[in-house]
Amino acid sequence: MKKEDKSAIIKQLQSTINEYGHFYLTDIGGMNAAQTSELRRVCYKQDIKLVVVKNTLLQKALESSTVDYSQIYGSLTGETSVLLSNIGNAPAKLIKDFSKASKSKKPVLKAAYVEECFYIGENQLEALVTIKSKNELIGELIGLLQSPAKNVVSALQSGGSTIHGVLKTLSER
């Protein structure tokens, strides 16, 4: 491969990684063509981009980024594919479900960069499945903050009708 081609691929990888908020490094080696096609189809349906990359080119793309990705360089061995998504836990759920249904038990998680944190190793998959996105956490926080206000308004409204009923009864007597 020519140096110009490599630099073009590195720039493309860098722009793709910057476009998405989260990425997972996985091993899909050993999967046959039908399984790989099915994985790509499932990724497409869930708005997850699947890119098969050379480790050295991916490392150079990560090195030229503004974020320090040095923690995951050790995971760049063997065959590597990258799952990119704007939803933090979507690729983790896909990996878990697809590897459970697959005979080859692939894809296997190598490392992940989710919500500005690094997760290294296959044993981190369960933590990544249960992680909540920033928007989910904001939604829960808003719900918790609205709950006391709703209770006060509800009590005032029900109390108002009770007081009104008592006053009406007293005025009729």
State the share of residues found in helices, binned by percent.
55-70%
Determine the structural class based on helices, strands and strand pairing: alpha+beta
Q: Termini, distance in Å?
A: 98 Å
The biggest beta sheet reads: 5 strands, antiparallel
Order of helices and strands: HEHEHEHEEHH
Number of helices: 6
Q: What is Rg?
A: 25 Å
Outline type: elongated
Q: What is the arithmetic mean of pLDDT?
A: 85
Biggest sheet, spatial arrangement of strands? 2-3-1-4-5
What is the CATH class of the largest domain? Alpha Beta
What's the count of strands?
Answer: 5
Q: Total domains, how many?
A: 2
The CATH level-2 architecture of the largest domain is identified as 2-Layer Sandwich
Task: Briefly note the CATH topology name of the largest domain.
Answer: Alpha-Beta Plaits
Q: Point out poorly predicted stretches.
A: none
Strand content: 15-25%
**CATH H-level superfamily of the largest domain:** Ribosomal protein L10, N-terminal RNA-binding domain
Please summarize what this structure is.
Helices cover 55% and strands 16% of the residues. It contains 6 helices and 5 strands; from the N terminus they run H-E-H-E-H-E-H-E-E-H-H. The model has no long low-confidence stretch (mean pLDDT 85).
Walk me through the topology.
Layout: H1 3-19, E1 22-27, H2 33-45, E2 49-53, H3 55-63, E3 80-85, H4 90-101, E4 108-114, E5 117-120, H5 125-130, H6 134-172
Antiparallel strand pairs: 1-3, 1-4, 2-3, 4-5
Helix pairs in contact: 1-3
